[in-house]
Amino acid sequence: MIDIIRGDDFTTEYSITRVIRAVLEIDRLVYGVLDPADNGDENFWRERWRHRPDAHHVCFVNGFVAGYLQAVPLFPWTSHLVKSGQLRDAQILDSHVPLVSQREDQSLYIMSVVLHPAFQGLGLAHKMWNATASYWNKLSELQECLLTIWSEHGGKFFRPFFGARVGVDAKGHQIFSLNLDHNKLPVFSGAKTNGSFAVGMRSA
Ligand SMILES: CC(C)(COP(=O)(O)OP(=O)(O)OC[C@H]1O[C@@H](n2cnc3c(N)ncnc32)[C@H](O)[C@@H]1OP(=O)(O)O)[C@@H](O)C(=O)NCCC(=O)NCCS
Fold it and tell me: pTM of the predicted model, to two decimals?
């Protein structure tokens, strides 16, 4: 059973803490030790969650945290700093990110999309992306959507949507703008999995 749950649907501090610890563990499994300037620690995540809970979509497979997609809206001036490579991911603070109530959601930054190694290659990222796109497409008229490519699989995953290359970060990762369709995020059609599909774990 696959569930994609948005951050503002988690109701207890306990469930948020449990998920944050699980996603940090997934990051560690996937990337090894990350530079704190790229990922932040548990407190950083907790603050981000409090500030903008809807930035997180979490994928559960049979109750197990399989992965997450984090997409934060940016003020125009913050977007400029990201594009010019002056602001790495964990340097994006709450003051750079509009609150839901500010309704300044024209620029979106795909901070990360990561699946536990046992759940990669099964099409789950398509589902997380489509859930994220559906949410933002209802919420706002986007002017841009940015993302930094961290890996070959990430590049392959997003390639159908690539627009212009807008910059390079301090570690040499390329920053792209995604093609929007009338100010809306594109969605994947024909996703490999669906909500009733029983996903088996691949060996990590
Ligand atoms: C990138 C990522 C989110 C894609 O999610 P996903 O659900 O695995 O995506 P898909 O199942 O559609 O796979 C996308 C392609 O990559 C391949 N792939 C993904 N993970 C793979 C793995 N571990 N081993 C081999 N191939 C893999 C798939 O075979 C597929 O290729 P295809 O289109 O030719 O079939 C996921 O692989 C992941 O978490 N990777 C580690 C973190 C990462 O690199 N994030 C992106 C940063 S920009």
Answer: 0.92
